[in-house]
Amino acid sequence: MKVSGMLEGKIAIVTGGTRGIGYEIVKKFLEAGAKVALFGSRQETVEKALGQIKEKIPEAEVMGLYPALGEYNEVEKAIQEVQESFGQIDILVNNAGISARESIYEYSPEEFDKIMTLNVNAVFHCIRAAVPFMKTQGGGSIINMSSMVSIYGQPAGCGYPASKFAVNGLTKSLARELGKDQIRVNAVAPGVTRTDMVAALPPEMVQRISATIPLGRVGEPEEVANAVLFLASDLASYVTGAILSVDGATQV
Ligand code: NAD
Questions:
Q1: Ligand 1 pocket, CB under 6 A
Q2: CA of 27 to the centre of ligand 1 (A)
Q3: Mean per-residue pLDDT for 106-122?
Q4: How many CB atoms lie within 10 A of CB 125?
Q5: What is the best residue among 101, 167, 195 to mutate for testing ligand 1's pocket, by most ligand atoms within 8 Å of CB?
């Protein structure tokens, strides 16, 4: 699908942009004409992703940073660096996230903290550091990566759904708070999506999961990226506070 021009002249930050859904979002945004700063967790994975992108899209204007997203000072410094390098910040995609499936009987407080730090605190940190720039330049678009588990919960690993309920809460509240500054805040809630984790599952298991989904298959990372692109773009100029499900109508 041709998307060229949809984000012409826009500057975007994508966290967790080195692989999976985040990597697809970075590529989609570049194809749509944006300049992109991708944030990853480590220098090596950031450099590898930048190399792959440059090979696929030689004209891409892309930079990579690896702030510890759980540390506000590091996030603030990285976002300042993007502002200095690219001159503005129009789009922020809070995509980085981790999950866990431990039973409550085995769940350690440290694991719970780790999930909350990346899936919730980091989202707050990035938004807190980016919105002053967006306000000054007259607006922006923030997209947070939620999950279908933010609607249904899940039967193990309570920290992950709890973190995604919190992401929805940040999304809905900040949409109301930041509307006056022309900053839109939305979330995308994917169902099971074919990232490395799903690709590593036995095919029979993927088939079993697919059979429970009305569209009869798991989602592709690009399909999630398409929804993020829509929300980032001016096509969604009157959409804010939405939690957009991209899950083939999964009912769990
Ligand atoms: P993934 O594991 O393939 O990628 C996760 C990304 O987050 C990577 O780029 C990684 O570098 C980054 N990351 C992990 N720990 C980090 C840290 N400490 N600091 C900075 N970055 C870190 O995951 P994915 O499946 O592409 O998931 C991306 C988002 O989509 C997550 O928020 C996830 O909760 C959500 N999601 C995924 C699915 C799915 O089925 N894959 C479904 C619903 C929601």
A1: 16, 18-22, 40-41, 45, 69, 95-99, 118, 145, 147, 190, 192-193, 195-196, 198
A2: 16
A3: 98
A4: 25
A5: 195
pLDDT per residue as tens digits for the range 232-251: 999 999 999 999 999 999 98
What's the gap in Å between 238 CA and the centre of ligand 1? 28
Residue from 72, 91, 70, 78 nearest 46 by CA: 78
Query: What single string gives the DSSP state of each residue in 80-98?
Result: HHHHHHHS---EEEE----
Pocket test for ligand 1, best of 41, 154, 222 (most atoms within 8 A of CB): 41
Q: For 31-62, what is each residue's pLDDT tens digit?
A: 999 999 999 999 999 999 999 999 999 999 99
**At residue 16, does pLDDT exceed 80?**
yes
Q: For residues 26 and 14, give the distance between their C-alpha atoms in angstroms, rounded to a whole number.
A: 7
For residues 93 and 146, is the Cβ–Cβ distance under 8 A? Answer: no
What is the distance in A from the centroid of ligand 1 to the CA of 13?
Answer: 15
Task: Confirm if 140 and 131 have CB atoms less than 8 A apart.
Answer: yes
**What is the whole-number distance in angstroms between the Cα of residue 224 and the centre of ligand 1?**
12
Task: Write the single-letter amino acid at 139.
Answer: G
- At a CB cut-off of 8 Å and minimum separation 6, what does 151 contact? 189, 243, 245
Give residue 199's pLDDT band: very low, low, confident or very high (50, 70, 90): confident
C-alpha angle with apex 155: 153 to 161, nearest 5 degrees?
A: 35
